[in-house]
Amino acid sequence: MLPLLCACLLLVARASGGSDVSSDAHFNTEEHIRDMHAKVTEIWQEVTGRQAAGGGGPDATLYTACHVRPSATLDASEPQVTGLVLFRQLAPGARLDAFFELEGFPAESNGSSHAIHVHQFGDMSQGCESTGPHYNPLGVQHPQHPGDFGNFPVRDGSLWKYRTGLAASLSGPHSIVGRAVVVHAGEDDLGRGGNPASLENGNAGRRLACCVVGLSGPAPWARQALEHTERKKRRRESECKAA
Ligand SMILES: *[C@@H]1O[C@H](CO)[C@@H](O)[C@H](O)[C@H]1NC(C)=O
Ligand SMILES: [Cu+2]
Ligand SMILES: [Zn+2]
């Protein structure tokens, strides 16, 4: 199977690299990249799918855990946001499910919305500043990046959300494993800000906190699912009492 994969990749590479770079290649670069991505992803899915079917075990689910820490470049007066972001991918190529669990937002930010994105590098050596721009493997505009998760409301200093159908992937050529999740001080304008930055990063403001997406076993996800259910129940109960 491996020689087959190599042969396919070689064909794809030759098909795209063999054209005359000096003439119309520039014009079609974006289309080429997208086309090549589709082919490589297809090959990847076929290979991983076969591995899962034969001997790889019946469960091809992937899990990651990302421990959010305040950016090292913030001063002490800034909000110290901490928490956990978990992803789950039930099969290669499937959309992601996620838990976002953050706390440490200041009281005056009650009701505010905060952008969360996947950034290119899992490098936190200069706090969240060294995680680079939005992860953008297809060279498209914001908010079409795979890690453009939009806005999350803060309530009483914390943010917790279960989301499904996220376009990012934990496998394949555009996996977000090893890259960073960044929590911003501001709201994402979702590309409607009317300036160039809006189409790059949504003008979401300072980087408050971040983490590196790392593979994990299923245990953190199971714990969080339980915690999420119990918290929802508690909130419902307190709302009933208040009513
Ligand atoms: C924060 O806002 C929520 C409604 O979004 C409200 O129920 C809650 O009482 C507010 N908390 C504080 C501390 O103002
Ligand atoms: Cu961001
Ligand atoms: Zn983006």
Automatic annotation (TrEMBL):
Any GO BP = response to hypoxia
| The protein's required cofactors | Cu cation; Zn(2+)
GO molecular function terms noted in the UniProt entry? copper ion binding; superoxide dismutase activity
Q: Does the keyword Disulfide bond apply?
A: yes
Does Flavoprotein count among this protein's keywords? no
The record ties this protein, via Pfam families, to: Sod_Cu (PF00080)
Top-rank EC class of the record's enzyme: oxidoreductase
Q: Where are the transmembrane segments?
A: none
Q: Which reaction does it catalyse?
A: 2 superoxide + 2 H(+) = H2O2 + O2
Q: What compartments host this protein? A: Golgi apparatus, trans-Golgi network; Secreted, Extracellular space
| CDD domains given in the database record | Cu-Zn_Superoxide_Dismutase
**Signal peptide boundaries:** 1-17
Q: Which UniProt keywords apply?
A: Antioxidant, Copper, Disulfide bond, Glycoprotein, Golgi apparatus, Metal-binding, Oxidoreductase, Secreted, Signal, Zinc
Paste the cofactor note.
Binds 1 copper ion per subunit. Binds 1 zinc ion per subunit.
Primary subcellular site in the record, as a coarse category: Golgi
Query: What family is this?
Result: Belongs to the Cu-Zn superoxide dismutase family.
Role played: Destroys radicals which are normally produced within the cells and which are toxic to biological systems. Protect the extracellular space from toxic effect of reactive oxygen intermediates by converting superoxide radicals into hydrogen peroxide and oxygen.
Instruction: Please report the name of this protein according to its UniProt entry.
Output: Superoxide dismutase [Cu-Zn]
The organism encoding this protein is Rhinolophus ferrumequinum (Greater horseshoe bat)
The encoding gene is SOD3
